[in-house]
């Protein structure tokens, strides 16, 4: 039986999402298989980049053919406008400042000790910025862009927020069973982060224009700021952990956002953007 775009548009959000990712996987598998046949190795970062490029293209076609959108990326929240850039930078500084503050608080409590940066730290600084922006753009366009758009077409804003946040956390927990049991508290932090990023998208823009809310500038910037801060301290080896302090305080697997103070920071960030998102609803 041949399925038309018009038939697929009448399906529920869950079926549409499953269909989308099934189609994406079918388009990506030949690339992964070709790479494996040529190199004899499992798919690497190049295959992952190809997968995300296919996702960007397919999401554009999907929006135009399935939902009749003239500019799908605009409806997903990706807008090339000054508002997005300003919101991105402000949110990135906010996220980076939060991570730095977290490490400084842990240092003042004697849980960790800061180490002097190495001579190649400026390179790490720039590399971290690049990695953070790529991760922020890729994950936010997927989870707070296309996916949230699909969910909000069928569900209430509150239900769409919870589903997208849970899927965001689950996607980051595709790990071996042993690792999942060792790091399970991180899951709740990821759910809280997912909710904060949804509220960041629903917040008013830098210009306080209600029409400009629902864009990806703030969530991309916030996500990038958190990743950048973690990258600088971890890859830059700026932190030495005290063996006497348990991981549930400093952060499981040396992830500062997976400890008690990290959860508190995510709670503050979530509360901040939830309050901002309420302003958008009342403007």
How does this structure look, described?
With 283 residues, the protein is mostly helical. The protein folds into two domains: 1-70, no CATH class; 76-282, no CATH class. The protein is built from twelve helices and two strands. The chain has a two-stranded antiparallel ribbon with strand order 1-2. α5 (82-108) packs parallel to α10 (217-235), α5 packs antiparallel against α12 and α9 (185-201) packs parallel to α12. The longest helix has 34 residues, at 121-154. It is globular. The termini are far apart.
Strand order of the largest sheet: 1-2
Q: How would you describe the shape?
A: globular
Helix-strand string: HHHHHEHHHHHEHH
Number of helices: 12
Uncertain stretches: 207-212
Q: Strand tally, please?
A: 2
- The chain-level mean pLDDT equals 87
How many whole angstroms does the radius of gyration measure?
A: 20 Å
Helical fraction equals over 70%
What characterizes the major β-sheet? 2 strands, antiparallel
Number of domains: 2
Q: Could you say which structural class the secondary elements and strand pairing correspond to?
A: mainly alpha
Percent range for β-strand residues: under 5%
Tell me the span between the first and last alpha carbons. Answer: 48 Å
């Amino acid at each position: 039986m041949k399925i038309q775009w018009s038939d697929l548009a009448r399906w529920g959000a869950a079926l549409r999402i499953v269909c989308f990712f099934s189609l994406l996987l079918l388009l990506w598998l030949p690339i992964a298989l070709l790479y494996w046949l040529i190199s004899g190795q499992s798919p690497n970062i190049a295959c992952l980049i190809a997968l995300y490029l296919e996702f960007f293209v397919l999401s554009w076609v999907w929006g135009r053919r399935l939902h009749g959108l003239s500019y799908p990326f605009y409806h997903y929240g990706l807008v090339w406008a000054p508002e997005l850039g300003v919101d991105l930078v402000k949110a990135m500084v906010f996220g980076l400042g939060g991570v730095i503050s977290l490490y400084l608080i842990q240092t003042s409590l004697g849980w960790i000790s800061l180490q002097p940066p190495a001579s190649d730290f400026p390179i790490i600084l720039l590399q971290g910025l690049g990695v953070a922006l790529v991760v922020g753009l890729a994950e936010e366009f997927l989870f707070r862009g296309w996916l949230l758009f699909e969910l909000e077409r069928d569900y209430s804003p509150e239900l769409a927020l919870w589903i997208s946040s849970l899927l965001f956390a689950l996607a980051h927990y595709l790990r071996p069973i042993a690792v999942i049991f060792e790091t399970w508290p991180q899951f709740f932090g990821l759910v809280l982060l997912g909710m904060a990023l949804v509220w960041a998208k629903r917040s008013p823009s830098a210009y306080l224009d209600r029409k400009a809310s629902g864009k990806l500038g703030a969530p991309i910037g916030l996500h990038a700021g958190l990743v950048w801060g973690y990258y600088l301290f971890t890859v830059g080896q700026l932190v030495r952990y005290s063996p006497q302090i348990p991981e549930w305080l400093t952060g499981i697997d040396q992830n500062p956002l997976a400890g008690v103070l990290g959860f508190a920071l995510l709670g503050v960030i979530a509360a901040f953007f939830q309050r901002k998102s309420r302003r958008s609803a009342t403007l």
